[in-house]
Design brief:
The structure is a homodimer of 210-residue chains.
Chain A (H helix, E strand, L loop, with lengths): L2 H7 L5 H10 L1 E5 L4 E3 L7 E7 L2 E6 L5 E7 L6 H9 L5 E5 L3 E7 H10 L1 H27 L2 H16 L3 E2 L3 H7 L4 H13 L3 E4 L2 E4 L3
Antiparallel strand pairs in A: 1-7, 2-6, 3-7, 4-5, 4-6, 8-10, 9-10
Helix pairs in contact in A: 4-5, 7-8
Chain A binds a DNA duplex (30 and 30 nucleotides) through helix 8.
Chain lengths: 210, 210
DNA sequence: TAGACTCTGTAACAAATGTTACTATACTTT
DNA sequence: AAAGTATAGTAACATTTGTTACAGAGTCTA
């Protein structure tokens, strides 16, 4: 069995299930910045993240965008889950934030395992729960926080996800994620720099202390 | 078997399951404006809505509030679902919007039925899916719409849920749901009245044409 | 190296939303 | 009926966020 699978899901799933996953799952490594899922698309397999991070974005009909949350290793996409179960189409866009390694599980199997393995059932429900919580967390941020606080939270989150205190993004990219304008982000970042919390450079932001 | 159960879930669940629900479920009728679930609370049973409507509200530590969505007959609370499965505590507040009749299902049974009945499994997953979609819909509204559009959407939704073109609420109550101030709501409502879309009265709003 | 292009900084202004304060009216209670 | 309370209307103003415009600095390419 591939070591990566064992490392990431070994304490979550029983041995038989791990063997099944290893048998029917397809391993895939996807480069950074690749769009995995688009709004309106249907999926026939479900991804388990082994390594890396995926950015889940809401995109409406006018092309307005907003970052919903990040997925990391050990996570799966709840939207894909329910798309698989119910044959619904996707309402979100998924882009690899870093290079990402996935195991793709065919729908047929994931349905079968629901009745067969308690640990799998648990994993699926936990995933739904976590995604619902993250959606609510996003709602909290947009509804209750001002843009400066949202930006701060975003920067913290980003350093955690990328395991790096240097954030390689333009102000425009950040503005898209937070659904605001570039000028607003530049303004607030400059304020953070003046407060000594970050260091601004072209195409990147170094976090000093948030 | 109670007719209401058959009427609302008859085409969703098989006969055996309906009989089981009827056997172990407890029927409850709750008056309007009653708080069913509070943030931080744990639940040991899961509600199926038979009649009426429930308002699901996010409430943060500072007491800030925001309406997430309404639940109607045929719905169940996904947050409660995952609370039951995972022993998590509630992150939301649930208040009856109208008088509501529920069937309460003990956790033990709902877990057992997951493996036993395909239709139940389906129902649970569909519920999660729908709640996730509604959370995303809420995110859309807060992120992409201005307050006047959000108010309009709110009024439309409210007439649908209550089956009544007269909305019995004060401006303050609406302001809480949309997490803004009373003055803002009064201002926008007055604008809608001037446009001939609504008629304002003390403690109530009559919808003319939205 | 000249020109094109991208990214950032900044000012000036516009629009949306939030706050405070005060008034009038309707309703409730004593 | 008088007093108190809740609700709504409105003005004036503050704050936050969004928009437009332009300049300068870095990067890329012919």
């Amino acid at each position: 069995m591939i070591q990566l699978l064992k490392d990431n899901y070994g304490n979550l799933f029983e041995k038989e299930l791990l063997l099944e996953i290893n048998g029917v799952g397809t391993f895939k490594t996807i480069p950074e910045g690749f769009t995995i899922i688009r709004p309106g698309s249907y999926t026939t397999s479900m991804p388990l993240i082994i390594e890396g991070a995926i950015k889940i974005i809401r995109e409406d009909a006018n092309g307005d965008e907003l970052l919903l949350y990040f997925l990391e290793k050990g996570d799966t996409c709840a939207m894909t889950l329910s798309c698989c179960f119910g044959q619904h189409k996707s309402e979100i866009k998924a882009i690899t934030e870093t290079e990402t390694t996935l195991i793709m599980i065919p729908i047929r199997k994931m349905e079968e395992w629901i009745t067969k393995y308690y640990s799998w059932r648990n994993f699926v429900f936990e995933s739904y729960h976590n995604r619902l919580l993250e959606a609510i967390e996003t709602i909290d941020s947009i509804a209750f926080l001002n843009m400066d606080e949202r930006l701060l939270k975003y920067l913290k989150n980003k350093t955690k996800i990328n395991q790096n205190t240097i954030i390689k993004n333009t102000h425009q990219e950040i503005a898209y994620d937070l659904h605001t304008s570039r000028v607003v982000i530049s303004r607030l970042l400059k304020k953070l720099e003046n407060e000594g919390k970050i260091q601004l450079n072209r195409n990147s932001i170094e976090i000093i202390s948030l």
